[in-house]
Design goal:
Layout (H helix, E strand, L loop, with lengths): L4 E2 L14 E3 L9 E6 L5 E8 L25 E7 L12 E6 L8 E11 L12 E8 L13 E3 L2 E7 L8 E6 L2 E4 L4 E3 L10 H4 L22 E9 L2 E8 L6 E7 L6 E8 L15 E11 L8 E2 L1
């Protein structure tokens, strides 16, 4: 995985700066996270020692590129999240899993979180049967909160999270959930690429020349980020949050979303969830639906202190 170097400065601005929370998943780091399953049947999982070179696509072999190491990584060891994938699960429910890092230093009202992610799905472009699931990221006021991407979700607590599909198979592929006291779906609460662009078929995502995730950049499903590494960074400043994405080959980050978020959300979370209760028509294909995470960095941000991370 990518190695992080941090410089120690003796200037007044740097004095007292706490070390960031990092995870590169080279070794088993399960003890450093709280895993919360959002499923009556516990049909979701987090694998902290997954070697992505062992993956074999069950549906769509020949259309899927090999899962290469994440940007700057030295091995393929990653965190893998699955949801609604157990063949023997008799329950029809929406499953999800949230992973909360145990922070080295508590975050304040200004903080950032960055990670590499790969959204996999079964089937070729646009996905196969039961292929649409969502990667999510954000923060809550408790690291015990169970989150999912159900259309009509109602979760007791305070927090927010953004979501993306890998295959563009939802009516809204880019979603936002938030609330104080109760978290609910709130798509209109976030602006994606400057507008209400929630579907992968919107031109800002899919246009053959300018679309952010257009297929000519290597995305199997045009308009969606699946089956490719992207680097995501969120920056929270009080109740304002901005999401940035860096694609393979990009020199820097591009702002893709903004939102007003609840105050007091000091437990960052990454996760993965199904959208509905069904499973693929061929149950073995469910193993193709997952999200990988790597190179996680969570840090406090000060307006007058530059980011001294070296990548």
């Amino acid at each position: 995985m990518r190695l992080f170097a941090f410089l120690a400065f003796t200037t007044v601005a740097a004095v007292g700066m706490a070390a960031p929370t990092t995870a590169n998943f080279e070794t088993n780091q399960a003890a450093n996270f709280a895993v919360v399953i959002a499923s009556p049947s516990n049909d979701a999982s987090a694998n902290f020692t997954y070697d992505s070179t062992t993956f074999v696509q069950a549906n769509g072999t020949g259309t899927v590129p090999d899962i290469t190491p994440s940007p700057g990584a030295s091995t393929e060891n990653v965190l893998r999240l699955n949801a609604n994938f157990t063949p023997s699960d008799p329950n029809a429910d929406v499953d999800g899993v949230g992973v909360y890092p145990n922070l080295v230093t508590p975050i304040g009202s200004m903080w950032s979180m960055q990670f590499d992610t790969w959204l996999n799905y079964n089937g070729p472009a646009t996905g196969g049967s039961g292929s649409t699931q969502m990667m999510f990221f954000g923060a809550t006021n408790s690291n015990t909160m169970a989150l999912n991407t159900n259309t009509a979700v109602s979760i007791a607590g305070t927090g927010f999270y953004f979501t993306m599909t890998g295959d563009g198979g939802a009516s809204q592929d880019y979603r936002f959930y938030s609330g104080t006291g109760t978290i609910a779906r709130n798509d209109a609460g976030a602006t994606w690429l400057g507008g209400a662009f929630y579907n992968n078929l919107d031109a800002v995502w899919i246009d053959a020349t300018t679309g952010f995730f257009r297929d000519t950049l290597g995305y199997e499903t045009s308009g969606a980020p699946g089956k490719a590494w992207i680097t995501v960074k969120i920056v929270v400043n009080g109740t304002t949050c901005e999401v940035f994405v860096k694609r393979a080959g990009d020199a820097g980050f591009t702002s893709v979303a903004t939102a007003t978020v609840p105050a007091g959300t000091t437990s960052p979370v990454i996760g993965f969830s199904d959208l509905n209760t069904g499973q693929p028509s061929t149950i073995a294909w469910a193993a193709d639906n997952f999200t990988l995470f790597d190179n996680l960095v969570i840090d406090n941000v000060a307006a007058d202190v530059p980011d001294w991370h070296i990548y």
